[in-house]
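Tutorial, part two.
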Amino acid sequence: MKTIYKLLLVTLLLLSTTHAETWRVNWQHSKVTFQIPYMGITDVSGAFTKFDGAFDFNEATKKLDNVEFVIETKSVDTNNTKRDAHIRKEDFFYTNKYPRIRFVSTNTVYKDYKPVKLIGNLELLDTKKEVTFDIKYKGSVQDPWDQNKIAQFFEASTVINRKDFGLSWNKKLDKGGLLLGESVKIDIIIEAFEQGVRPAFSRFYLPTKNIKKSVAKEITDKKKVVNESTPINETTAGNVVAPSVVSTPELPKVKDIVLNIVFGFIAFVILIGGGIKLQIVITKFLEKKNFDPKWTFLIPNIIVMILIMYIATLLAPYMGYGPHPWGN
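Running the prediction step on this input gives:
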């Protein structure tokens, strides 16, 4: 009986560890923006439109851990095409050589049982430096299109010195001073859904036809403004208007769909076949140990079921269920 209790204890431990409360960033409802002083008078505002991230969070304890966030540098958008092209070159992000900005957390500070600061390493260009984000947990909301799905909401902000990361380009003004300031304010708004759970179906098909027409018109208007925009190294005075970034969902390619189907089928066959084989092995082992037939049937089924669920959760992003994992 002691052996049975030990096996049941292991099974319960497996059950408790397989439900990892890992959350993925929903890029459709999240935002990454920044501000940098401009000409000593105003600020230039911008955003990144492509990013991905994941973190562990327990809503009951408010414990936040293992945060990883990746930004695609080419997706920078300051509402000025010529300026964006300059920012992508060697003077700034050098996107051909450094395609990503990466943040990985190392510690979380709590106040009143809520996360208030997130400490970690920010990797930009050739530099990795510790930075601290101010964190605000905004709470969770039940998905209006699917009552079984929950979304978590966070806000994060920090100020960095761009020269600490090798972003030192600048230009002197005719009347003294420099075109750009050194401090950069970063603001991130996050909506996240549970890892392995696809966001609500309707989110992939919004906006409606009327909104689509509005978005198309906004894109057209934005293109018209491009010819009137000025590059970043010009010193024309004037107020800088915060960008209105238009981001539309990227539809999956046929090649990706086919690969997901093939991989999903192969993974399914291996999982089921491996599960049956493991179940037979465990059953024979228990029979040799003269276990009661009830336990001989129950224990292998529980263990195999847990393992299949756990492995399927890990493989889900590669089968098109949820966002694809980012590259290294």
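The chain has two domains: 22-249, 255-319. In part three we will examine how such features are distributed along the chain.
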